[in-house]
Amino acid sequence: MRRGTFKDETVDYAAVGASQAPDLMQYPPERSIPAQESWRIGSGEARFRTASDSLLSWGAQRGAGLMLSDVRPASGPMYAGVSFDAEGNAIAPSRTDADQRFDQDGTPYVAGGTTIKVDGRVRGQRADAELRVIFTIEEPRRVGFALGTVGGSVVSGEESFMVDWHDNDEVWFTVRAFDAPSALLYRLLPALVRRRRRELFTGYLRAISPLYATPA
Q: What's the rounded Cα separation, in Å, for the pair 97 and 189?
C-alpha cells in the first residue's frame, strides 16, 4: 500500500447517501445521471461469504481496472458513516474501529470514513478520483458500502455496492450510482457518463461473480 498526501476533505456533492434512495432512478439528485444493476451471482452461504469478503477488500474496484493507493482509515475514533436499511431509512452503524481488517497486501478493508485514491482508465478516458467511504453495512445476510467523490474525478457523485443473501438462498450483487458530470468533456457529452458507468458496472460484476449472471 502506497501512502501519499491525500487531502482530508469532505465529499464534493450534497446528496450524501442518496445512492440508497428507493426512488433514485426516478428522482436522482439535481444534474446527476442515475444508474443501477442487479445480478444473481449464485446461491448459498459460501457464495455470500466469498462475495462479501471480495467486496470489502476492494475487489470490485480492482476488478474494474482501478488501482488503489493512499488507503486511509478514519483518524481517531472510527467514523461511523451513514447506514440505511432496504427502505432507505437511516440505521445505526454495525462496525467499529476495533474491527479493522487488512488484506494479504496490508491494505485496510472497507470501513466507514476511509479515504482512498483510485487511478485508471475506462474506455480510454481517465477514471482517477479521490473517494470517501460514506457508510458500511455488515449484517448476517447483507453486506455493502458506498463511496462518494471528494475530488479529482470527471464526475461528482456516489455509488453503492451491496451483496444480499435472500431467504430463497439466492445471492445478488447490486450497484447503484448517480454521477454529475464535472469535467468539461463530460458536461458537453453526457453519453460519455453513461458509457463510463456501463463499463464500470461490467468490471465490478467480473470481479465479484465468476458466473457472469444476466442483469435482472
A: 42
Pick the closest to residue 65 from 139, 118, 21, 17 (CA basis): 118
**Do residues 67 and 120 make contact, with C-beta atoms less than 8 angstroms apart?**
yes
Among candidate residues 183, 195, 171, 202, the one with its CA nearest the CA of residue 40: 171
pTM of the model: 0.81
Q: What would the pLDDT profile of 68-77 be if each residue is shown by its tens digit? A: 888 888 765 4
CA 192 – CA 7 distance, rounded (Å): 28
Coil vs helix vs strand at 51? helix
Q: Is 154 helix (H, G, I), strand (E, B) or coil?
A: coil
Q: β-pairing, 90-91 with 83-84?
A: antiparallel
- Nearest Cα to 138, choosing from 205, 83, 78? 83
Residue type present at position 183: A
- Please give the grid coordinates belonging to residue 75: 483518524
